[in-house]
Amino acid sequence: MPQGRYPYPSDEIDVGIAPNAPGRPLRLLVLVGALIAAGVPQPARADCTPDPTFGADTITCSGASERLATGSGDDQIDILGGATLDADASDAVTDVGAAADAAVRGVNAGPGADTVTHDGTILVDADADATVVDVEPALVDTNGDVDVEGSADSQATGIAGGSENDQVTSRGGVEVHSTAEARGTSVELDLVGGGGSADASLTATAVATGLAGEGGADTLTNQDTVEASADATASRGAGDVVIIGSAGSSTGTTADATAVGIDGGNGADSLTNEDTVRATAGAHATATDVNLVLTGLSGGDSASDAVAEAVGMQGGGGGDTLTNDGLVEVRSNADSTTTDVGVSVIGIGQVGASTSPTARGTGLAGGSGADTLTNNDEVNVETSAEARRTRVTLSLTGEAGSTAEAGLFAESDATGVAGGSGADTVKNHELVQATARADARTTDVSVSVFDFLQETVATPIEAVARALGLAGDGGADTIENTDRVVVEADADAHFVDVEVNLVDAAGAGADTLADADATGVAGGDGDDTIFGDRGDDRHRPPRIRGPGGRNRRSRAEREQRAEHRLQLIADPEEANAQIRVRADQRARGER
Predict the structure, then answer these.
(1) Residue 138 predicted with pLDDT over 90
(2) Sequence spans of domains, the chain
(3) Which residue, 70, 74, 71, 48, is CA-closest to 166?
(4) Considering the chain, what percentage of its residues have pLDDT values greater than 90?
(5) pTM, to two decimals
(6) Burial 300-332 (b: 16+ CB within 10 A, else e)
(7) Cα-flanking dihedrals φ and ψ of residue 95, to 5°?
């Protein structure tokens, strides 16, 4: 018998919990004990995994399991109703230079043309946590740097098809959570300092995918609820205290979160949602920098970047077909905060702080290739980017100010349906909503008692919000709309500058920009054809109920509506148009 091969007469394995029967527990214990004594590795009942397989397997899960993974071959995987796969992975590290990694999949079909049918419940949770602390005191320090680095990486997938042409049908719930958190603190304490610094660099990355086809021409169908959520948090603080000399610290935090409900991957994939798909991404970055010098130069530089991206259904590479007959909800939020404090009793106090949150969200995304995207039910996308910054500089005798290169940028992009590159066909027969909000706020406080404030160039502060309902993007696209498209964009940039100087003049302030752009339908690059509907929806026919309980129109009804109500709209904002656009932008500065 090959090493690691289970002693079953065939590759057909049923892993589950059988009803109790008189004498059965005792016989099972005796059998398991004999096999272990013989040195034969056994699969645990809580793991639906044959170990390993060399061909086409048929696997049935009917009880409580941890996760399921297969080897090469064209496998048939059936997760029966009432079965539960509860898979989790966690990694917590506390050390200088710590790297925490957690990755888990509920079902990993592996290589081969696999067929996965899911009627149970799949719960997947990955959690990575990294904590770094470094404190170094010194009586005399000429160039003693305190460097802190740490990272947390978390990846979670509900069902992964593998590298070939897979078929995945999910008629049960799939819930996937990925969480990554990196925290760090670095402090340097010197009586006499000369060029040393306390630096900290932290990165948190979280990725969550509900159904993943990966390579090959895959067919992915959801008939229940798929939820994918990713949350990444990076926070750190750095401080440098020097009695005589110079103090300088630098902090940098990066948080990156990506959530996809259904992802086809590379290849010509077919993706269908008949019930509910939810994708939620949150990225949070915080950086704090404090420098204190009794006599000399105090300076600091902190930066925080947060990127959150959520997609409901994503085709990826190849000519994909995406059909939504249910509800697609997408939420993406990115927020970053920086705080810099520089204090020099006699000398120069100068700080710089930058922050850049970016939030992106798309309901249906075709990706590259000639894709066909059809929406027959509701798509709702909301994105939000928030940037906050506080800079405080104080010098009793000398200079106090902020560095010019420190900027504040908040960017938010929300798109309902996007074809991507290639000659795409986009059809919308139901409500599509896209809402984007961007908010950038900063407060600068500079105090110099007996000298001057130094701020040579105005600091840029920008908030950009873009909302787009239907987008063809690149290529010669065809866009057809027979229902409502509602888009809203809101941008707000706010600057408060407080400068106090008893003897001398003040420096420059800030440039604020708030840009909001809302577009109902956009063809993009190429020779595009756009059809629209301006009909009245008040006499809408009754709906039929889909397999998962969602109300939707029949195919005949949709074809009839398209035939009788398609009209070419030259201006989507004309009276009675079904495309509603709202844009709001504000920019404020106070000195």
Answers:
(1) no
(2) 153-508+525-590
(3) 74
(4) 38
(5) 0.79
(6) bbbbbbbbbbbbbbbbbbbbbbbbbbbbbbbbb
(7) -175, 160
Cβ distance 273 to 295 under 8 Å? no
Distance CA(391)–CA(158), nearest Å, equals 43
Task: With CA atoms as reference, report the closest residue to 484 among 528, 443, 442, 540.
Answer: 540
Rounded Cα gap, residues 86 and 64, in angstroms:
8
Instruction: Judge contact between 400 and 446, C-beta under 8 A.
Output: yes
Kind of pairing between the strands at 544-545 and 551-552: antiparallel
What is the spatial distance between Cα 576 and Cα 591, in angstroms, rounded to a whole number? 45
pLDDT digit string, tens, across residues 503-552: 555 455 567 888 999 999 988 777 778 887 533 333 333 333 344 444 44
Q: How far is CA 238 from the centre of its chain?
A: 27
In this structure, the number of other CB atoms found within 10 A of the CB of residue 281 comes to 32
E strands of 264-275, at which residues? 270-273
Contact 259/279 with Cβ under 8 angstroms? Answer: yes
Residues with Cβ within 8 Å of residue 83, at least 6 apart in sequence: 16, 61, 62, 63, 64, 65, 119, 120, 121
23 burial class (0-12, 13-18, 19+ CB within 10 angstroms)?
A: exposed
Q: Is 163 helix (H, G, I), strand (E, B) or coil?
A: coil
Of 436, 438, 421, 426, nearest to 486 (Cα)?
436
Decide if 305 contacts 312 (C-beta within 8 A): no
CA 253, CA 551: separation in Å to the nearest integer?
Answer: 45
Q: Quickly count: other Cβ atoms within 10 Å of residue 80's Cβ.
A: 16
Distance CA 225, CA 120 (A): 11
Whether residue 315 contacts residue 420, with contact meaning beta carbons closer than 8 Å, is answered with yes
